[in-house]
Amino acid sequence: WQGGVRPRRLLGFSPVPTSDADDFTVPEGYETQVLIPWGTPIRPSGPQWRKDGSNSAAEQAEQIGMNHDGMHFFPLGNGPAGSRRGLLVLNHEYVDQDLLFPDGPEEMTAEKVRKALAAHGVSVVEVEQRGDGQWQVVESPRARRVTGSTPVTFSGPVGPDHPALAAANEPMGTLNNCSSGYTPWGTYLACEENWNGYFGTEDPDWEPTPAQARYGISASGFGYRWHEADPRFDLAADPGEINRFGWIVEIDPRNPDAKPVKRTALGRFKHEGCTVTESRGHVVAYSGDDQDGDYIYKFVGKGNWRVHRALGRSPLDHGTLYVARFDDDGSGTWLPLEHGTGPLTTANGFADQADVLLRTREAADAVGATRMDRPEWIAINPKTGDVYCTLTNGSGWDNAVNPRTPNPYGHIISWTEEGGRHTATSFSWDIFVLAGDPAYDEQVDLPQSGIFGSPDGLAFDGDGRMWIQTDVSNSAQNLAQRGYDNIGNNQMLAADPRTGEIRRFLTGPRGAEISGVTFTPDQRTMFVNVQHPGEATTAWGTPSPEDPRAVSNWPDFDPDGRPRSATVVIRRTDGGVIGA
Ligand code: FEO
Ligand code: CA
Ligand code: CA
Ligand code: CA
């Protein structure tokens, strides 16, 4: 701890118990408000949501998308005004096609593909706090949807004219935006995670290249079947289209006319998120590749980011991408993914830096990065500069940084960059907590008020409180033998990183994960996302994918409606700082 003064306690709320109710619970003294559920018009005058799923693709493109995920609040105004009005920008990770269409996805049509694309991407809405404390969406020229069909461009070593990006249609769209980030210059970063699964083909002669196989690209995809109605998603018809995915996408929330830009210098993989900081003028961006056995990366900008900006260049286009090696002795090294360095040579099949970036995973394999238990969010403690990463769960990789084999519960690691400089190429690491239930794993050191599993979302507030969100998959939750039966619904916890104390702050409705968290600058309003309430499951004894309302009908509880992802606004009834 820096400063020498004993800081006050960080966690001042009473923990909530675990829950299996179809409800959203917060501690005593807190209140909640559901904001912008799926289908809400992004301008109050826009098309209203229809609860039978019959909104058209064009209407969906003017409404909040599905499956809210990473999110950031950009204040409008300085001082107290900036905590009462702002742009709320959030990702829509994927779609549930059973809920999206009135008749489900049985028959795939071009209009259904258009609507599914329109429910993906990013929403920008202007929100304002009323006199009674409640938040509302207001008419705004900045309100915007970026969808799977929005024109985009490319920048960095894999530029817009790179032959690998050539395809029949103009460059468009972002898909599977999981976690997110934001930059010191006020832009939003949407991250493309499980983009591989949208593509498929019926062509019996199609086979994946080694690079495509390394990204999990397959003829059947995840079963969206868009390729049946739109050749853009047919791997055999248009092999360049898929190379346009797997990137970090920069969006200027204050300029609705600016094209989103895919920043290729940050690499191509299943980006969970992108956590940006600066170190002596250099921009540094951390990103996990969320796959069992994949890696943690960081990008270090070359030169001072302010100089790049002043010259009209993007600081994210110039720099070095590194991948992490965690050694068993507690030290670590950032390995550069630079063409011509180490094994990344033309003789070894890497043509140039663009090729290294298009095949980031293969490049990272070649330099000897450390396999991890599914790296999810990365967050930086503003009080110490230490970096934390959630490893949600995994097979176990016979290394000290992933100590359990298998690892159904996940863990959180931290590291300190050498000299406290985020540009450093070496670091020391530690395990912050092993998640789970001590009733099933005696290595777990958590009280009942803090048991959790599958950490995913991770963020620090300005006081150095760490916020942990969970994403236990419903199949895992269903398995008592995996030790999840006492843990209940997904939840969010607060931790004191100095003492290691972890305390449950909220629980979500059935079938939902908790994902996405942001604060007003005064930390008196917290926004949290509830994703996929009612996800088809047998966890609550109701095996009914045909009627998800049997699992959850949150937040409307309308017998004729359907469960909807939404943002939840959390405030203290006394107006105090959240968590304190
Ligand atoms: Fe979309 Fe890795 O969670
Ligand atoms: Ca998710
Ligand atoms: Ca996630
Ligand atoms: Ca997850």
UniProtKB/TrEMBL annotation:
Listed PANTHER family: DUF839 DOMAIN-CONTAINING PROTEIN, SLR8030 PROTEIN
Region entry Disordered, spans: 535-564
Pfam families found in the cross-reference section: PhoX
Lineage: superkingdom: Bacteria
Protein name in UniProt: PhoX family phosphatase
Signal peptide bounds: none
Species of the source: Streptomyces marincola
